[in-house]
Amino acid sequence: MIEIRKGIEQDVERIMELGNAYYNESAFSSMEFNESKCRDLFFHLLQYGFAVVADDGGKLVGMMGAILNKHFFTDTLMAQDVLVYVSPEYRCQGLSRRLITVYINWAISQGVKRDNIFLGVDSGINRSITEEVYNNLGFKRFGTSMRLQEV
After folding, report:
1. Sign of CA dihedral 86, 87, 88, 94
2. Among 16, 32, 89, 145, which residue carries the largest CB count within 10 Å?
3. Residue ranges of domains in the chain
4. Per DSSP, what are the bridge partners of residue 83?
């Protein structure tokens, strides 16, 4: 059985592999990958934010990271994901749902109200399936990210 657990420092190299896979598969792959910045982000999430992994007997096959912050116009505490990623060969097994459920529970335990818990849908990876999973967990579209395209 695949375990969803808190990430630890010893996971960082394997998390980097997943991070690189996410990058290569995502709509962001046209940008230059900065391994040092990615590594720093994961250490930051492990120390100050939310970082969980899907562990299949020592093989990391999924991950999720998130942060807490206050809304820029108010003192309302919000939770926002940084990324959710499951390796292609492990998709359609409910791992995203399990990762996100742990995220929701973590955010609530930190004092975030349910309607201030956010997930982004901007990686470009299986967008319609991603939105369906998020909708089934109670998330609804709230705003839109748009990207200026090269001419």
Report:
1. negative
2. 16
3. 3-136
4. 65
